[in-house]
Amino acid sequence: MRKLNKYFQYVMRFSGFCLFILFSMNVVAQDVAADSTQPAPVAKKKPIKNTFESNWIQDNQSVMVPIKGTFEMDIQHRFGTVNKGYKDLFGIYAPSNIRIGFCYVIRNNFQLGLGFTKDRLQWDLNGKYAIVKQGKTGGWPISISYFANVVIDTRDKSNFVTGTDRLSYFNQLLIARKITEKFSAQVAPSLSHFNNVEGYVDENGKIQKKMKNDHFAIAVMGRYKLTPKTNFMVNYDQPLTQHPMNNPHPNISFGLEMVTSSHAFQVFFGNYHGIIPQSNNVYNQNNYRKGQFEIGFNITRLWNF
Q1: Which residues contact 190 (CB under 8 A, 6 or more apart)?
Q2: For residue 137, is it within any domain?
Q3: Is residue 23 assigned to a domain?
């Protein structure tokens, strides 16, 4: 418990530092009205647009929530690791992971989604809420959204002791700022929880957990516009919790995003394979230091009703 509290404090302090930096960027000079007898006109607060172009920043959610009535379909694909070279055409013909998902913005700033992932036959129910938005004229200097999901592993019951062992959960706070017209940045602390983790029998014959049920992590990412329709994106995920065994490796990914008003296509290199965020954060064993990168892509299609 003390170690858990220590990691929680670390996440909060780091997030606080990032918030301080983002707030500092918002200090601007304001003109004083020449006629002191007349009150200065109150500027209408308008949220800034297009901090990011899509719901996704490669392996993470972005702070953005589309407008009310938007229906979105996601197709996400991760090939195998590239380090086997031509034997499997740099992972393209290796075993892959695929997720198909849908989400709908049911009211302003709030969307709900559902998806199915090939790995572990996982169904995910997710939601995202835009808490505050960065102001274009007045208002907040940053945007903050909250993302959460619940996932059920639907593999054969022989993989579990009880039904609740199938469940896992993910919570993430998304904090972003559009710093210039071309550059946006985001920091995102997260907490993953698995009801069931693997165990082993120690030398005394007692069952011990290989991993903890709760896992803290933090992600930092950015987007730079190369052209009006093309963006360069980079992302880094750092695990914070230390487990007794099988500690996950960090993830680094980078790639390009091509966008239109109704589509976004992202192609990138990274060392995550899981697609489901808690699976990536807790179970990632691809080590980028050994060249265990994978080619991935995300396709989103939007309809407005």
Answers
A1: 170, 171, 172, 173, 216, 217, 218, 219, 277, 281
A2: yes
A3: no
What DSSP letter does each residue of 193-252 carry, written as one string?
A: EES---EEE-TTS-EEESS-SEEEEEEEEEEEEEETTEEEEEEEEEE-PPPSS-PPPPEE
Is residue 147 a part of any domain in this protein? yes
Number of domains in the chain: 1
Q: What is the mean pLDDT of the chain?
A: 88
Q: Is 109 exposed, middle or buried (0-12, 13-18, 19+ CB in 10 A)?
A: middle
Closest by CA to 115, choosing from 92, 97, 129, is 97
Residue 80, CB half-sphere, CA atoms under 13 Å: how many? 13
Q: What is the CATH number of the domain that holds 283?
A: 2.40.160.40
Task: Evaluate whether residue 179 is within a structural domain.
Answer: yes
| Global pTM value | 0.84
At 13 the pLDDT is 52
